Amino acid sequence: MHFTIQEFSKQTGLPPSKLRFYDKKRLLEPSMRLENGYRAYTPEQVHLAKMIDSLRQADIAIKDIKQYCDANEQQKRVMLELWKNDLDKRMKAISAARKYVGGIKASNTQTLLLSKWKKEKFLAWQRFEADRTPHPFKQSFTIAKQQLNGQVTSDDVYVKTEAITSNKITGKIGFEVDSNFSTEDSSNIQLERVPPTLFAVLENCRADDAFLCFSYIQIVVRYGFKPADYKLERYTNINADSYDFLIPLVR
Question: What is the pTM of this model?
Fold first, then answer.
């Protein structure tokens, strides 16, 4: 028994134009072609067609659906888990975007932005201790960069604070490096792979701003954000006196 494309459309609820599209992408090919060249489908393809379209409605890429249809049971389990994790991240990103829009006040000029690292980055970190003064690690930027022997891939400098006492501050200085960067030559260098991340960004913060911590708390409360990890300071180069304050929201 075979269905014409019109009959198959009625069985599946999918318009003929979509069935032709799936055929063109070799995702759902007709069981056979009739003598007149028309597409013909079998009853067994009805559920497959509905499942394929359901995965498309879930925003799964066509190439991934095709791979899923050709996979064995174990491979399908792995793919389903990856899809679930990806959808969870997208839901978190949408939630963060909703909180951001909800925190905007039309009467005020906004200083907080959303920014996403679409590709993973590799950061080479080095730990330093400095006196607790404004911009405490500035003098260490050049030293940290020189230790990487010209292997940095960006002028940006990253700082994350780890501990603060009454007169000292400990933190890490990081630079972007290539994925092939090796830490074998130095025990003080740690390589971190940072996945694509959505950040809330407070721009042009002064390194000597004594009220930044208070401003940060106000932002978190106002927008209802829950930081996903440590906060970062990003300087445009080793001589910069201001930085962007990056608050990770979704990783």
Answer: 0.76
